[in-house]
Amino acid sequence: MELLLVRHALPLRLSTTDGSPADPPLSEEGREQARRLARWLEREPLDALYSSPLRRALETAEPLAQVRGLETRIEPGVAEFDAEAPHYVPLEELKATDYESWRALVASGFYLEGDAESFRATVVGALEGVIAANPGMRVAVVCHGGVINAWASHILGTQRLFLFEPVYTGVSRFLAASSGERSVVSLNETAQWPGDAGPPPGLPGT
User: Fold this and answer.
1) CA atoms within 13 A on the CB side of 113
2) Cα(143)–Cα(185) distance, integer angstroms
């Protein structure tokens, strides 16, 4: 089967005052990104659609579900590693407003609260469940940069969790054989961007 992992579109910045998890919606720009993604993936077969339970992923999946007539199935195991954090700041905003903090974050390979291996194991278990439930199909999972990196690093057999910077609505494709083999087809496809020229320069990734 073919597994498409799609990073969500651009969300708003959000902080909560009571310490509850920040779960921001898409920005207006993000909604347009989600619509472009839907128009692009409308061109190819798609058998099933899954999403992280986080709002930015669900709202990204919504236009695609509509144009393909698919039900969006929620998969809790592909929520981002910071799902419980009381604040969310899009990385390009952090770069623009606090460049030194952004540089430190990139230099650290992106700080991961908690156990990185536990996070990766959760992601791998969830995606293996999706694979097992959809043999021989093409399935899209709208999720997050950390999730995409966790799966890619697992497939490539590397210890480092973060390998590349997925762009908003970037698509990464993987093959999953019934024999158990897993392979990378592509990372960070951006044909949905206007003119197929790729994303605007400087768009960050996890």
Assistant:
1) 7
2) 18
Tens digit of each residue's pLDDT, the chain (206 residues): 999 999 999 999 877 878 888 889 999 999 999 999 999 999 889 999 999 999 999 999 999 999 999 999 999 999 998 887 777 777 667 667 765 765 666 555 554 545 788 999 999 999 999 999 999 999 999 999 999 999 999 999 998 888 888 999 999 999 999 999 999 999 999 876 665 444 433 333 33
Dist CA 130 CA 201 (whole Å): 33
CA distance 108 to 111: 6
* 3-class secondary structure, 199: coil
First to last CA, the chain: 26
The number of residues in the chain equals 206
Q: Which domains does the chain have, with CATH numbers?
A: 2-135+146-191 (3.40.50.1240)
Return the C-alpha torsion angle 144, 147, 148, 152, nearest 10: 170
Residues forming beta bridges with residue 2, ordered by sequence position: 138, 175
